[in-house]
């Protein structure tokens, strides 16, 4: 009887009677999505942009069709508009530039065009909250450069044209030879194969200079690429820079600023001597 009971209990368990039936775990199939590498866009490189047209000293049209009014520059003064436009064409026309989203314009060497234009007195600053522009204008005003000098601001030493009875006029006397001058030659920026230089010519003599040509020789094979506030001429190492129509006069004790960009692979040594209209100048 005991054996029969045990067998009955075992059979019941096998058949699930009275006990909880355990189901085998359901097989789950996990599908892994295929690996898709992230698509990374190549870095965006700005296409070369050149200045196709100079409207005035602060407005240009670019090769991509955009017209840009350079941030921070005021409208050109009527007394200096032609000179400022000539400066802008020299520096920008057909040149590669970078136009920033803020409205600035950078030259190929990284120079901020607006700061340069204000520093040379080509135009007034219109960005009162910009320290660099404010400093540039203060320098130009102190040195009476560009629109801060003649003809916008007449010097007290200017010789007037006098009238004689009968309606005839007497022109000012012919300019006298240079009696004294000094030259400050300052490299303001360099990059591989190139440089930018400011040249300040001061009349230290006893007479006004009306019409001038500055001459020097490069010692390291440099060449002038572009020049502003003067017309360049180069023959071998010798360079001459002749006054523009708007900056012919250098009154006694006053100065003019000109500058240029240059190139060279043999170093950039400073010229050792300068002459103004044939007169040997001292180095400032």
From TrEMBL:
Q: Which GO terms describe its molecular function?
A: hydrolase activity, hydrolyzing O-glycosyl compounds; polysaccharide binding
Q: For the region Disordered, give the residue spans.
A: 14-34, 142-177
Indicate the segments forming the CBM2 domain, all copies. 174-284
Q: Where is the composition biased (Low complexity)?
A: 22-33
The biological processes this protein is annotated with in GO are: carbohydrate metabolic process
Under Pfam families, the record lists:
CBM_2
Name of the protein this chain belongs to: CBM2 domain-containing protein
Species this protein is from: Lentzea aerocolonigenes
